[in-house]
Automatic annotation (TrEMBL):
Signal sequence, renumbered to the chain: 1-20
Protein name as annotated: TRAP transporter substrate-binding protein DctP
UniProt key word Signal: yes
Source species of the chain: Sulfitobacter porphyrae
Gene3D superfamilies: Bacterial extracellular solute-binding protein, family 7 (3.40.190.170)
Compartments where found: Periplasm
Keywords from the UniProt entry: Periplasm, Signal
Pfam family, any one: DctP
Length: 333
C-alpha cells in the first residue's frame, strides 16, 4: 500500500511539473554580480514562482549567455526569451518616448520617483506602450539607475573648477550639459572608463556610488562630487508581447503586481548599496565626498544647447500626439 501511495505521489508531482510553465529571462548581468540589479532579478523570479504557487517559474540566462545587452530587445521580440532587461538608452531610435529622462539631465527626481513617473506615463499615455508594442515588447516593470554625481580624479568644488576638465559623456543630455559646464565631453563606454580614469584620458565620469563601486572606478578616482544630476533612467523590465498576452488573467495579475513591487524592492536595495559604499569610502577606500554649491548646475539648464536637447524630445513626443506639459513638469526644476 505504501509503495502504491508513494508511486501515486511521485506521478502527481511529475504531472504537476509537466504542466508548469517555465519562462526564460535574458539578462546581460553576471549571476555573481552581487549588485541590486542582479539580486532583484533573482528576487523577481523567486517571487513569480511563489506567487503562482509553483505553477510557473522563470529560468534566468545570466551574463549574456543567450543575448548580449544590445541584442536583448530583438531576441525578446523574436520569442527567444520571455522576460529581459532592455537598457533603454542604448535604443534611442527604437524608443524615443521611453528615453524621456535621458533628454532631461539634470532633473529633480530620485530613483523611485523616476520609476514611478515611468509607470504613470505608461498608465496614462498609451503612446509609451505602443512604442514598445511596435517591437513586440511590453513593459512589466522599470529599473531606474541611482542618483548620479561626478566621480573625479581631482577635487571639484564649483562650476569654475570644471573648466577644461574631460568628462565622460554619453546619451542625449550629457554632451550639451558638460559643454555648458565649461568642460569637454568625451565619449567612452562604461567598460573602458576604469582605464580612461586611470590613464587620465578623462578626469571625471557621471555615476552613482553603487555603480562606481561595482565597476571599481573608485580604485582610481578618489573624489565624488555631489553634483545634482538626479537619477538616470536605466532599464525596462520587458516581456515578449505575445508571451504577456498569452498569460491567463491570474498570472497576468501576478506579473503586473510584481512589476510594481519590483520597483520598491529594487529602490530599497539600491539605497542600502549607496549607504554601504559611502561607508567603505570613509574607510579603507578613501574617497572624499564633496558637496556642490546649490543652484550652480540648475542654472545651466537655460543654456541654448541644453534647451535644444530638451526641445528635441518635445518635438518627437508631439509628433506622436503625446501631450507633453505634465511630463515636462516632472522633469524640470
Amino acid at each position: 500500500m505504501r509503495t502504491l501511495i508513494s508511486a501515486t505521489i511521485v506521478a502527481t508531482v511529475l504531472a504537476s511539473a509537466a504542466c508548469a510553465d517555465t519562462f526564460k529571462w535574458l539578462t546581460y548581468k553576471p549571476q555573481g554580480a552581487g549588485d541590486a540589479q542582479a539580486i532583484t532579478t533573482q528576487w523577481f523570479a523567486d517571487q513569480f514562482a511563489e506567487r503562482t504557487g509553483g505553477k510557473h517559474q522563470i529560468d534566468i540566462f545570466w551574463g549574456g549567455s543567450v543575448a548580449k545587452a544590445r541584442e536583448i530587445p530583438e531576441a525578446l521580440a523574436a520569442g527567444v526569451g520571455d522576460f529581459g532587461d532592455v537598457i533603454t538608452p542604448y535604443f534611442p531610435d527604437l524608443l524615443p518616448l521611453n528615453n524621456a529622462v535621458g533628454f532631461y539631465i539634470p532633473q529633480p527626481m530620485k530613483t523611485q520617483g523616476v520609476g514611478e513617473a515611468m509607470a504613470t506615463w505608461h498608465k496614462d499615455y498609451p503612446q509609451f506602450g505602443q512604442e514598445l508594442a511596435q517591437q513586440n515588447l511590453h513593459a512589466v516593470g522599470f529599473r531606474p539607475l541611482e542618483n548620479y554625481g561626478l566621480l573625479c580624479t581631482k577635487p571639484v568644488r564649483s562650476i569654475d573648477d570644471m573648466a577644461g576638465l574631460r568628462i565622460r559623456s554619453y546619451g542625449f543630455a550629457y554632451p550639451a550639459l558638460i559643454e555648458a559646464m565649461g568642460a569637454t565631453p568625451v565619449s567612452i563606454s562604461t567598460s573602458d572608463s576604469y582605464e580612461a580614469l586611470q590613464r587620465s584620458v578623462i578626469d571625471c565620469t557621471p555615476i552613482g556610488p553603487a555603480l562606481a563601486r561595482g565597476w571599481k572606478y573608485d580604485e582610481v578616482a578618489k573624489y565624488y562630487i555631489e553634483v545634482p544630476f538626479g537619477a538616470s533612467f536605466g532599464h525596462i523590465i520587458a516581456m515578449n508581447l505575445d508571451s504577456y498576452n498569452a498569460l491567463d488573467a491570474e498570472t497576468r495579475a501576478v506579473v503586473d503586481q510584481l512589476g510594481h513591487d519590483y520597483l520598491m524592492e529594487y529602490s530599497r536595495m539600491l539605497d542600502e548599496d549607496d549607504a554601504r559604499v559611502r561607508e567603505l569610502w570613509q574607510g579603507d577606500l578613501g574617497v572624499e565626498v564633496i558637496d556642490f554649491p546649490a543652484g550652480e548646475l540648475e542654472a545651466l539648464v537655460a543654456d541654448d544647447k541644453v534647451q535644444a536637447v530638451r526641445n528635441e524630445w518635445i518635438e518627437k513626443a508631439k509628433a506622436l500626439d503625446l501631450p507633453v506639459d505634465d511630463i515636462v513638469a516632472k522633469l524640470t526644476f
